[in-house]
Amino acid sequence: MVKTGSSLLAVFLAEPELRVEAEGPPWSGPEAWAGVNQELACLIRGNRPDLDRAVQAAEAVRQGMGHLIPVWESLCAATQQQCQDNCCTAQRVWFDFRDLLLFHLLGLAIPPGQTRADLSEPCRYLSSRGCSLPRLTRPWRCSWYLCQPQVELLAAQPPKEQRRFSRLLRSVLENREEMDSSFRTAVLY
Which of 36, 109, 113, 146 could share a disulfide with 150, CB 3.0–4.6 Å? Predict the structure, then answer.
């Protein structure tokens, strides 16, 4: 049972595998966005003593991303000029529960709103120079997504670099899962 009277988060805490793609991004309206972030902050404050493992996993995500970000930025810089179908418009991406949890556990600035109100819109953070958000506060799917030209560039790297990239990516994924699982255990039981 959730240790607070959460409403917007209740479904996500109870059903971690819930998919919302058909309906569009969760918390897409300004009130829902403010509400979910307020509730999540309240849950974290109310359960802080029980969240050590979740915070440690969030810190491990930040550390792993710190190693991956230069690679992603290099790949983006190398392919940006030839990009025919910008991933920010082509991909159906939004902030998910784990993204918000990471931001809150690390004390990062919360973006002002969901990436889009519905799936037909482009990302609100897309600017003429690319994403206006720092890499760590973008949706996770935006960071790990590689277009075909980027995949080809990565495949051209020495095998040692490819393995390092894969290990780091796997570590971030595992730590995001641990962060989520530890948080759910702390607030649900």
Answer: 146
Q: How many helices (H) and strands (E) does the chain have?
A: 8, 2
Asked if residues 89 and 122 have their Cβ atoms less than 8 Å apart, the reply is yes
CB atoms under 10 Å from CB of 52, counted, come to: 11
Q: Provide the whole-model pTM.
A: 0.88
Looking at residue 102, its pLDDT comes to 98
Average pLDDT over residues 125-143: 89
With beta carbons less than 8 A apart as the criterion, state whether 130 and 174 touch.
no
pLDDT at position 28 over 60: yes
Taking the CA atoms of 112, 116, 118 and 121 in sequence, report the sign of the dihedral they define.
positive
How far apart are the C-alpha atoms of 37 and 52, rounded to whole Å? 20
State the Cα–Cα distance between residues 17 and 38, nearest whole angstrom: 22
Q: Which residues of 66-81 are buried (b: 16+ CB within 10 A; e: fewer)?
A: eebeebbeebbeebee
Q: In whole angstroms, give the CA distance from residue 162 to residue 109.
A: 32
CB 162 within 8 A of CB 154: yes
pLDDT higher than 60, residue 101: yes
Tokens of residue 76, six digits: 């983006």
